[in-house]
Amino acid sequence: MGVMLKQQKHAEHYSDLEKAINTLVTQFHAAAGDNGPTLKSDEFKGLLSSQLPNLVKGASSDQGLTEILRKMGVADGDGISFKHFWGLIQSLAVTQHSLLGGQKGSNCSCMVL
User: Fold this and answer.
1) Helix or strand or coil: residue 106?
2) Shortest CA distance to 48 belongs to which of 39, 37, 58, 56?
3) Could you give the CA distance from residue 91 to residue 87 in angstroms, rounded to a whole number?
4) In b/e form, how buried is each residue of 23-39, taking b as 16+ CB within 10 angstroms?
5) Is 104 left (phi over 0), alpha (psi -120 to 50) or beta?
6) pTM to 2 decimal places
7) Residues 6 or more apart whose Cβ sits within 8 Å of residue 57
8) What H or E segment, with its residue span, contains residue 39?
């Protein structure tokens, strides 16, 4: 499974979900100033404010960012790994799914692993 999409001229051959995953990975790495495997707090804050401004509230304040990092399981002073970022994305997706599912009035029996 660990195959990454390469940005090519023929990106339209990829599904929307494949493109979405590729976007998550490339945006995470683009936010890293040193191309390292983790983001510094300020880099992460920039990623949230530029790419998730409507879904992640409170990240603009130091207190809000600290709370988000705590919920993600990031220890004070540690870098933010893609695994931490993915946990946030998962949480946002589950919340969004609940909101959208409730709007349609359906009882979803989906299971998120």
Assistant:
1) coil
2) 56
3) 6
4) eeeeebeebbeeeeebb
5) alpha
6) 0.77
7) 64
8) strand 38-39
